[in-house]
Amino acid sequence: MKQSIVYIGIDVAKAHLDVAWAEQSRRFNNDKVGRATLVKWIKQKQSGPVQVICEASGGYEQELLDALAEAALAVSLVQATRVRQYARAAGILAKTDKVDARVLARFGAAMRPEPTSPRSAAQKLLRELESQRRHLSDLLVAEQNRIEQLHDEKLRGLARTLLGTIKKQIARIDARIATVITQDQGLCQKAQKLTGVKGAWESAPLRCCWRRCPSWARSIDGKLPLWRAWLLLIATAAPCVASAPSSQDVVPYAAASTWLHWWPAVAIPSSQTFTGVFAQKTNRTKLLSLPSCENSSSPSIRP
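The structure assignment produced for this chain is given below.
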């Protein structure tokens, strides 16, 4: 008979770890000695399969995840929003470290989340590089906005020097990111999946997304045709929507720009329908047009 999994909730803070296991609660220091003591305690009390549930805590949970992975203990990193919504649904309004640990344990028993796969050394480094690059990008934007408010020439010179330093650091990080991806076969394959989608790699949000969460690339397996169709749809609709004379014309303009990219059986009735719409729009535009110079005495019609 298969033994049921026992879920252990751990609330992660900068200085300590609050652990809830069944009716017991304990606190360990969030340092190397404290994490080793926690793993040893779990191993001593373990009589069957266990799974640790914790939530992201600004990076303070990463070393705990590494220690649990080294000890071959299953762990799930869950979203804090999901846990908070579960607590509200269960009527748990109090929020302390000990209560949060118990809520995590109850959340695990109720929702049974899948264990989080441990990251490789290359994935950890890539995530750290991406985090630093994102920080420098935000700093660059802030300094570019700030330099416009400076009137003293010496201060503007210092600001331009700082901007140049930030740009150089971003360029170095980009080069190192490319090196890390090239040297790791798994990351290189995931990068090729995205570069195979026309237009996707030029999108900064997509580039950042898969580098922050390398496992995300697996979700597009077998869906590349859908990605290509979606990107083609956006690429063809955007220029036509931008040329729409008013907000009321956006929908028909977008639909008209995508007729040729849909199945003919759908495109033909759609074209017939929107032909009538464009005719109405054309008549409305004529009615709203200003009077000609030949008939300047007639009153103008306003919408």
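Interim note for the steering committee: The chain has eleven helices and five strands. Residues 153-183 form the longest helix (31 residues).
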